[in-house]
Write a structure and sequence with these properties.
The structure is a single chain. With 484 residues, the protein is α+β, with helices and mostly antiparallel strands. It has a single domain (36-112, 158-327, 363-475), classed as Up-down Bundle (Outer membrane efflux proteins (OEP)), CATH 1.20.1600. Helix content is 60%, strand content 10%. The chain is built from 8 helices and 4 strands; from the N terminus they run αααββαααββαα. The chain has a 4-stranded antiparallel beta sheet with strand order 1-2-3-4, with no helix packed on it. It starts with a helix and ends in a 9-residue tail after the last helix.
Length: 484
C-alpha cells in the first residue's frame, strides 16, 4: 500500500513546483512591466528676453484662436477665409498627414496587447515508400489527409518599456503633425487676409491713377488748345503727353499686380484662377488697434512652437526604444485547436491540440549596430532641442519685428498722409497760379507729379500698416485675448 501510494506523491510535487515557478515568472514580469528604460521627457530651459513676461512654456495651441480676421470688419474677407479653409489643397494634405500619424500611433499602441490569429488548413499528402526508416524494416507509402483548426496567441512582455516608448514616440509624432496642420491653417488664413488687403490697396492706387489720368488728359486738351492759339509752347504739350503716358503705364503696372494677387487668392481658396470670381469689397478694411504690451504667453499657442516641442518629446522617447534593444525580449506564445486526419473527427475532444511557452531573445553581437542606433537617437534629440530653442527665438523676433512695424508704420503713414494733403494743396495752388498767368504749365506738371507720388505712397503705407497687423496676429499664433 505504501509503495503504491508513493509514486503519485512523487509525481505530484514537481507539478506544484512548476506551477509555482510559472506564477513567480508572471509576477516578476508584471513588476518589471512598470519599468521603461530611457530618459523621461522634460521640457528644456529656454532663454528669453528679460522684458517679456515669460513663464514656463506650455504649448496652448489647442486653445481656439477664433475668427481673428473679423477684426478687419469685412464680410467678404470672412467669406473668403471660410472658402479657403474648405477648399485649400495644402491644408487638406496636412490634415491627411496628421491622420496617417494618428493611425501609426494606433499601430504602435496595438503592440501593447496580445495578437490572436485564427488558422484553418487542409493538407493531403503522400509519403515515400523508399524513405529512410527509423525501424529495421521499410515503411510502406501511404496517403493521408490532415485537417487543422487552431488559434495562435503571441504577446511580447514589455519588460523594458520598448513598446511603451514606441507608442509614446508615435503619439507625440501625431501630436506634432496636428500642430503642423494648425500651422498650415494659420499661414493660410494669414495669406488670404494679406492678399485680400493687398488687393484693396491696389484698388485704391488704381482709383488715384485713373483720376490722375483723367485730369492730365483734360490738361493736355487745354494745353493743345493754348498751343494752337499761340499762347503755349510745343514743349509744354509734349511734357504733358509724357505725364499722361507715365500715369497710364503706372496704371497698367498696378493692374498687372492686382491680377497676380487675384490669381494668388484664387489658388489659396482652392479654385482655378480662370474661374475665380473676384468680389473684393469697396473701400478699405478697418485698421484694428493692437496692444503694444503683448504678453509672451501668447507665443505658447503658436503651432510651430508646439510642433517643435512635441517633435522633441518624440525623439526623447526614441532613446528609450534604442536603449531597450540591449535587453532580452520575452515573448509568450501559445496555440490551441484541433487536428484530425478526417474532417468528421476534427472537432472531437480527442482531436484537440495545444502548446504554450515563452521565448527569450538576447542580443549577443550586432556589430555595434545597437550602440550606433542609441548614439543616433541621442544626437537626434539634441538636434531637436536646438531647433526648439531656435524656434522660440524666431517667434520672439517675429513678434518684435511686427510690433516695431505696427508702431513705426503708424507714424510713417501719418507723415505720408500729411505729405499727400500738402501735395494736393500744392497742385491746386500751382494750377490757380497757372490760370492767372503767373507761372508756366511746367510748374503745374511738377506739382501734379509730386501729388501723385505722395498719394500713392500714402495708400501703400496704409496697406502695409494693415499687412503688419496680419503678420503680428500670425506671429502670436492667431488672435489675442480681448482683455488686452
Amino acid at each position: 500500500m505504501n509503495r503504491s501510494a508513493t509514486p503519485p506523491n512523487i509525481r505530484f510535487q514537481p507539478r506544484l513546483s512548476n506551477q509555482a515557478s510559472r506564477l513567480a515568472v508572471l509576477v516578476l514580469a508584471a513588476v518589471l512591466a512598470g519599468c521603461a528604460v530611457g530618459p523621461d521627457y522634460k521640457r528644456p530651459a529656454v532663454e528669453v528676453p528679460a522684458d517679456w513676461r515669460w513663464k514656463v512654456a506650455e504649448p496652448r495651441d489647442h486653445v481656439p484662436r477664433g475668427d481673428w480676421w473679423t477684426v478687419f470688419e469685412d464680410e467678404r474677407l470672412n467669406t473668403l477665409e471660410n472658402i479657403a479653409r474648405t477648399n485649400n489643397y495644402n491644408l487638406q494634405a496636412a490634415f491627411y498627414r496628421f491622420e496617417q500619424a494618428r493611425a501609426g500611433a494606433r499601430i504602435s499602441r496595438s503592440e501593447l496587447f496580445p495578437t490572436l490569429d485564427g488558422r484553418a488548413d487542409w493538407t493531403r499528402y503522400r509519403t515515400s515508400g523508399n524513405s529512410a526508416s527509423p525501424v529495421p524494416f521499410p515503411i510502406p507509402s501511404f496517403t493521408q489527409d490532415s485537417w487543422t483548426a487552431a488559434l495562435d496567441l503571441s504577446y511580447e512582455v514589455d519588460l523594458w518599456g520598448r513598446v511603451r516608448r514606441s507608442f509614446e514616440s508615435a503619439r507625440m509624432e501625431a501630436s506634432s503633425l496636428q500642430a503642423a496642420y494648425e500651422s498650415v491653417l494659420l499661414a493660410l488664413q494669414a495669406d488670404v487676409a494679406a492678399t485680400y488687403l493687398a488687393i484693396q490697396g491696389a484698388d485704391q492706387e488704381l482709383a488715384i491713377l485713373r483720376q490722375t489720368i483723367e485730369v492730365r488728359k483734360e490738361a493736355l486738351s487745354a494745353i493743345e488748345l493754348r498751343f494752337q492759339a499761340g499762347l503755349g509752347t510745343e514743349f509744354e504739350v509734349e511734357r504733358t503727353k509724357v505725364e499722361v503716358a507715365s500715369a497710364e503705364a503706372g496704371l497698367q503696372l498696378v493692374l498687372r499686380r492686382r491680377a497676380e494677387l487675384i490669381n494668388t487668392l484664387a489658388v489659396l481658396c482652392g479654385l482655378p484662377p480662370a474661374e475665380f470670381e473676384e468680389q473684393i469689397a469697396d473701400g478699405v478694411a478697418r485698421l484694428p488697434r493692437i496692444a503694444p504690451d503683448l504678453p509672451s504667453s501668447l507665443l505658447e499657442r503658436r503651432p510651430d512652437v508646439a510642433q517643435a516641442e512635441r517633435e522633441m518629446a518624440a525623439r526623447n522617447a526614441r532613446i528609450g526604444v534604442a536603449t531597450a534593444a540591449f535587453f532580452p525580449v520575452v515573448r509568450l506564445t501559445g496555440s490551441g485547436g484541433y487536428l484530425s486526419g478526417d474532417v468528421s473527427d476534427l472537432f472531437k475532444w480527442d482531436s484537440r491540440i495545444w502548446s504554450i511557452g515563452p521565448t527569450v531573445s538576447l542580443p549577443l553581437f550586432a556589430g555595434g549596430r545597437n550602440i550606433a542606433e542609441l548614439d543616433r537617437t541621442k544626437f537626434a534629440y539634441q538636434e531637436s532641442v536646438a531647433l526648439y530653442r531656435q524656434q522660440i527665438l524666431e517667434a520672439f523676433r517675429e513678434v518684435e519685428d511686427s510690433l516695431a512695424a505696427t508702431t513705426l508704420l503708424e507714424k510713417q503713414v501719418a507723415a505720408l498722409q500729411e505729405a499727400a494733403r500738402a501735395g494736393r494743396r500744392s497742385a491746386e495752388v500751382s494750377y490757380a497760379r497757372f490760370t492767372a498767368g503767373a507761372v508756366n504749365f511746367l510748374e503745374v506738371v511738377d506739382s501734379e507729379t509730386v501729388r501723385l507720388q505722395a498719394e500713392l505712397a500714402a495708400v501703400q503705407g496704409s496697406t502695409e500698416q494693415r499687412l503688419a497687423v496680419v503678420r503680428l496676429i500670425k506671429a502670436v499664433g492667431g488672435g489675442w485675448e480681448e482683455s488686452l
